[in-house]
Amino acid sequence: MWAPLRDDLRRGRGGGPGRMAEPGAIVDAVGRALGGGGALDGARVVVTAGPTREAVDAVRFVGNRSSGKMGYALARTSWLRGAEVTLITGPAAVAAPYGVKVRGVETALEMRDAVLAEVGEADVAIHAAAVADYRPVSPSADKIKRGVAEEELIVRMVANPDIATESARLMKAGSVSAGFALETADLVERAGEKLAAKGFDLIVANRAGEADAGFDTDTNRVTILGRDMPPRQLPLMSKFAVAGSIMDLIEDRLRQGGRG
Ligand code: CTP
Hints:
alpha/beta, two-stranded antiparallel ribbon, 7 helices, about 30% helix, globular, binds cytidine-5'-triphosphate
């Protein structure tokens, strides 16, 4: 058997002589063996995905409805195109893509530490995680009991660091950084502001609150903005197809020499 394919299948979950690999793993390993040769071949890609959870007490957290599907599709597509992929993920509703190194985290601070440890070496960083902007200042070690407040319970929150902004400062010359903007209004304008403020080369804007796009759907409707690039509006597509379009643009940027 062709060596790269054989090695990939041997690394499969529960692998061993005589044990058949998962059909999905075989399809992906063949896809990777047949693909490659592009700008992502051998590149180091870091993807963040999923929500973060910020503890309120021993059993409760502040979170959001991100499923992780978009970030996982990006990690899978990068691997299929020959990259070495690290997926840094909050608790997600989907299975990890085959071949990808997964680092599971829970809070924004854990995600930040994991990302900052990796991005300095990365050729590509993609910030698809829905990071909680605030965390409770002092989570209770015990379960907060019903009677602690008569009518209102006030939980003080403090701002989390911006992982994408901190990462952008650590990335090497020639690399590419991409992020997402989730907006309810003025989509392109606000995404353009985030593109500049967070040091992204590309930003993928999507609208919150649509039934067939955004959080926890299999499809997405996005507009991609880039430095020196007019906004590119894509039709409703599967998240896997959206990931392909995003990775095409990232590959173009890598070929053009990435960030200075
Ligand atoms: N992001 C991040 N760290 C944070 C918050 C966001 O790295 N603490 C990243 C996200 O992964 C995404 C981008 O920044 O790539 C934009 O996230 P978004 O939620 O759209 O915007 P915010 O910066 O949170 O701003 P706002 O909530 O005001 O829209």
